[in-house]
Amino acid sequence: MKRANKIIGVFLVLIAATGICGQDLVEAIVAVVNDDIITLSQYKQEFTSRVRMLRAQLQGEELSQQQEILKENLMESLITDLLLLQEARKLGLNVAEQVRMTIENIKRENNLTSDEQLQKALAQQGITYEDFVKQMEQNMLKQNIIFSEVGRKIAIDDSEIVSYYKVHQEDFIEPIEYTLKMIYIAQEGKSPEEIESKKGQIDQKIEANEDFGQVAAEFSEGPEKDTQGDLGSYKKGELQKDLEQPIEGLEVGNVTPWLNVQGAWYRLKLVEKKERRLKEFQEVRKEIEGRIFEERQQEELERYMVDIRNKSYIKILIANPPID
Fold first, then answer.
1. CB–CB of 57/44 below 8 Å?
2. What domains appear along the chain, each with residue ranges and CATH number?
3. Which tens digit of pLDDT belongs to each residue from 3-23?
4. What pLDDT, in 10s, does the model give residues 209-245?
5. What does the buried/exposed string (b/e) look like for 102-111 if buried means 16 or more CB atoms within 10 Å of the residue's CB?
6. Which of 67, 266, 269, 295 could potentially form a cystine with 259 if both were Cys, beta carbons 3.0 to 4.6 Å apart?
7. Helix (H, G, I), strand (E, B) or coil at 38
8. What are phi and psi of 87, to 5 degrees?
C-alpha cells in the first residue's frame, strides 16, 4: 500500500496542475468562460495544488520566483484548461474506456485487487475516489482534444530531423563516463594511529596486486563493502569534485592515492572509462523527432487557443483573486 500511495500521489500531482474541480457551493465567481464559471475556491485550490508541486521541486529564491510567476499566469491557465474541456465536449469526445483502463493499470501495478482498496489509498492522500476519476477524465479529455485538433496534423520530414541533428550536435554529446570501485574509511571515532594502521594494511595488499574488490570487501566501511567495492558508473560532473578530479588523469586499472574528503578517506580504482563522444544520428533520431514535435505542437496549440479565445465569451470578474 505504501508503493500505491507513492504512485498515486505522483499521478495526482500531474493532474492537479491541469484540472479544475467543480463545486456546488454558492460563492464568488472570478471568471466566466462561455457557459462555465471559475469560482474563487476553485482558483485557490488550483493555486495550492500547484504551489505544493513547486515546493516538491524547488526551494529558496527560485521557489519564490516561480510562485510569483504562478500568480501572474494562473488565471490564464485555468481559462485555457476550461476552453479545452469545452471543445472536447463539443466534439463529443469520450474517454470512459481510457479512464477505466488507467484505473485497472494503477490497481494492477500496485497490487490492489478492488476499487475499495484504491479508494482507501486515495483517502490517505485526502482525495475522494470521485474527484480522482473526475480529474483523470478531464486531464485525458484535454490531452485528446490537443492531439485531435493539433497533434495529429503535425508532419515532420526526414530532412528536418537531419538538419536538427546537424545544428544541435552539442546536445547529443555524451560526456566521459567513469566506472569505479572504492574503499572507504570513516574518520570519526578513530584515532589518527588507527586510521594510518588500516590505510597501511590496505596499501600493502593493493601494492601486492591483490584483487581490489576483495580488499574492499575486507576493509571498506561503506555499503560498497558488500559489493566488493563496486561504486557504479558516473558521467563527468556527477561525482563530487574532490573525488572526480583525481580520476580524470588516471589510466584504466589504476588506483588513486588516499583522498581525504569531508572527514573520510577514499581510494578509488578506475575500472572503465568511456570517452566523450557524439551520439550517432540513429541513436537520437526518435529523441529529435520528439523535440521537433513538441516545439511544433506548442506553436500550433498557441494558434489554436487564440482562435478559440476569439470565438469565446470570456469575462474576468476578479482580476487578482485573493489566495489567502
1. no
2. 2-156+285-316 (1.10.4030.10), 176-275 (3.10.50.40)
3. 344 334 434 444 444 444 444
4. 999 999 999 999 989 999 999 999 999 999 999 999 9
5. bbeebbeebe
6. 266
7. strand
8. -65, -40
Taking the CB of residue 21, how many other CB atoms lie within 10 A of it? 15
Q: Give backbone dihedrals phi and psi of 277, rounded to 5 degrees, phi first.
A: -150, 155
Q: What is the mean pLDDT of residues 266-278?
A: 95
Burial classification of residue 46, based on how many CB atoms lie within 10 Å of its CB (0-12 exposed, 13-18 middle, 19 or more buried) = buried
Helix, strand or coil, per DSSP, at residue 233: strand
What single letter denotes the amino acid at residue 203?
Answer: D
Provide the b/e sequence for 259-276 (b: ≥16 CB within 10 Å): beeeeebbbbbbbebeee
C-alpha cell at 169: 550536435
Say how far apart CA 153 and CA 317 lie, in whole Å.
36
Read off the C-alpha cell for 310. 476569439
Residue type, position 17, single letter: A
Sheet holding 36-39, edge to edge: 36-39, 29-33, 314-316
- Residue 139 has a pLDDT of 92
Q: List b or e across 194-207, with b for residues whose CB sees 16 or more CB atoms inside 10 angstroms.
A: ebeebbeebeebbe
Q: How far, in Å, CA of 254 to CA of 267, rounded?
A: 10
Q: Read off the C-alpha cell for 2.
A: 505504501
